[in-house]
Design brief:
- Helices cover 78% and strands 0% of the residues.
- The model has no long low-confidence stretch (mean pLDDT 85).
- The protein is globular.
- Helix 5 packs antiparallel against helix 6.
- The protein is built from 9 helices and no strands.
- The chain has one domain.
Length: 260
């Protein structure tokens, strides 16, 4: 088991996409879908938090098993897993807040500590947090654990800022968007690439959650009243189109390499 976790399997290539503009667009839309999709299933369809969480968790486990069995980055598998992680991460926070009455202050603090612990353990064992170094099963497991925690943390932090602290959805989008821009500027000015990537990755979750709430919530509550169904459908359509383009491009590249 240890040898399987630490060894690079034959033919194993990068399991994550290149960090380009399309990556961040899909990531932000995935976080928004996680917020709106979870609300649609739990509230609009009446599944409730527990049933929605159980179904989405089962789908996430299935997607992760497929992702872990692949030997290279496969766009549709990777982004399907991210969307499901987004929904499950949202549900974890919602279960704690709405189901168990856990304070958003406490859940934000707990998820922050958990994420720090994951990063600390990951770096202590693997000596890197770079996503370009995801070349063994163990590193990929650390990667997905960190991502799940960022989604749960981002949901809690976003709700804390926009609801508990009274920032509002619009200002939540502005503030978290500005923080993302600052992290990007820091990277452009020579900041550590790994650190600025993870800071930006964490911030896209509360940004996406605030954006989702701004679009879906009723106007009397400070939103634009689009509703969870139409917002989820719109963002999922864009995600599917972008992922399809990436998948077609990758398949064409593989066929070209095979013919040489």
């Amino acid at each position: 088991m240890r040898a399987w976790l630490t060894a690079k399997p034959a033919g194993w290539l990068s399991k994550v996409p290149e960090i380009a503009l399309s990556f961040w667009i899909i990531k932000i839309m995935s976080t928004t879908v996680g917020e709106t999709g979870a609300d649609f299933l739990a509230v609009r369809l009446g599944w409730g938090l527990v049933v929605t969480s159980a179904i989405m968790a089962a789908l996430l486990v299935a997607a992760l098993l497929v992702q872990l069995r692949t030997r290279r980055y496969t766009p549709w598998i990777y982004w399907l897993t991210v969307v499901l992680v987004s929904v499950v991460g949202t549900q974890i926070t919602d279960l704690l807040t709405d189901g168990l009455g856990v304070s958003l202050y406490l859940s934000t603090a707990v998820f922050s500590v958990a994420l720090i612990a994951i990063f600390f353990t990951w770096h202590r064992i693997e000596h890197t947090l770079s996503i370009h170094g995801i070349v063994t099963p163990r590193r990929e497991l650390f990667y997905w654990a960190a991502i799940l925690c960022t989604f749960a943390l981002g949901t809690a932090a976003g709700d804390l800022a926009t609801e508990a602290l009274g920032m509002g959805f619009g200002w939540g989008v502005v503030v978290f968007g500005a923080l993302i821009a600052i992290s990007y500027a820091a990277w452009r000015m020579g900041g550590d690439a790994v650190l600025t990537f993870w800071v930006g990755y964490i911030l896209t979750r509360p940004f996406g959650a605030s954006l989702g709430d701004l679009l879906t919530q009723a106007r009397v509550d400070g939103g634009l009243g689009m509703g969870t169904l139409w917002t989820s459908a719109l963002f999922l359509t864009v995600i599917v189109l972008l992922v399809a383009v990436a998948q077609i491009g990758m398949d064409s590249s593989k066929r070209g390499q095979a013919s040489e």
